[in-house]
């Protein structure tokens, strides 16, 4: 009778890879790249160190990083929105996107030991989900960034779950884009859920693919932008649609403070 249980050699090989990848990741990330970011002068240099450090780490972990559609990124300011399946997604996007992109991260991450300090040194933005006043201040700062020619990268689901499935997209990124009059670029990440997915503490080998779609036309209707971006990502991510069961489950601080006038 057929069975899906991996053979003993396959389990041993998987265990060896988990141990090896964990060792490489910890040494490269926490003992090499993060200290360099902490002492490096200038935000641009810190972001370069982060990007090339991630690429080095993936290479040493024997993880291919495949990027499609890099030419679709506009030369001017834009907002990249992508799916989110793993804590590794931010690292992968750091390696893929040009240094002009500022990541928007949940406020709680800023208090994480070590990692929070590193992210602040890289000039990333934090959004406070629990405070409307703080969210408003942060939203105005992001709008200034966009008007000054910078670009943002936002995980549009706002979080990730252990189970595969594309969650509902929050409105905030699209309200910012509509108000600033800049394009939205949908990006799809594949492979990170298997490599180190939500709820897992074990590395499992997987190639990682980042698919950058053409920018969506600039428009003033945030909901239409949101739905169009999500449709692109859903068609490319290879995961089921989890929007119906979870729609409206979590607040969106940017949406609460970035409604177009």
From TrEMBL:
GO terms for molecular function: 1-acylglycerol-3-phosphate O-acyltransferase activity. The chain crosses the membrane at residues 12-37. One of its GO terms (biological process) is phosphatidic acid biosynthetic process. Coiled coil: none annotated. The keyword Hydrolase does not apply. Residues 78-192 form the Phospholipid/glycerol acyltransferase domain. SUPFAM superfamilies: Glycerol-3-phosphate (1)-acyltransferase. Pfam families: Acyltransferase. Keywords: Acyltransferase, Lipid biosynthesis, Lipid metabolism, Membrane, Phospholipid biosynthesis, Phospholipid metabolism, Transferase, Transmembrane, Transmembrane helix. Pathway: Lipid metabolism. This is 1-acyl-sn-glycerol-3-phosphate acyltransferases.
């Amino acid at each position: 009778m057929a069975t899906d249980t991996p053979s003993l050699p396959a389990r041993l090989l998987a265990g060896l890879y988990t141990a090896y990848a964990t060792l490489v990741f910890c040494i490269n990330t926490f003992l090499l790249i993060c200290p360099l970011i902490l002492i490096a002068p200038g935000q641009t240099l810190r972001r370069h160190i982060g990007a090339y450090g991630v690429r080095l780490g993936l290479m040493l972990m024997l993880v291919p990083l495949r990027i499609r559609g890099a030419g679709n990124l506009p030369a001017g300011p834009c907002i990249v929105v992508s799916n989110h399946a793993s804590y590794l997604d931010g690292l992968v996007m750091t390696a893929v996107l040009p240094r002009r992109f500022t990541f928007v991260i949940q406020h709680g991450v800023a208090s994480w030991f070590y990692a929070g300090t590193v992210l602040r040194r890289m000039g990333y933005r934090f959004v406070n989900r629990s405070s409307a006043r703080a969210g408003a201040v942060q939203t105005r700062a992001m709008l200034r960034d966009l008007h000054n020619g910078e670009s943002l990268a936002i995980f549009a689901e706002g979080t990730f779950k252990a189970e595969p499935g594309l969650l509902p997209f929050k409105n905030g990124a699209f309200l910012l884009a509509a108000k600033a009059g800049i394009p939205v670029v949908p990006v799809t990440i594949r492979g990170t859920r298997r490599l180190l997915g939500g709820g897992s503490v074990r590395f499992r080998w997987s190639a990682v693919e980042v698919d950058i779609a053409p920018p969506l036309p600039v428009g003033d209707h945030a909901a239409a932008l949101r739905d169009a971006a999500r449709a692109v990502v859903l068609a490319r991510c290879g995961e089921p649609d989890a929007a119906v069961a979870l729609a409206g489950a979590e607040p969106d601080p940017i949406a609460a403070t970035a409604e177009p006038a």
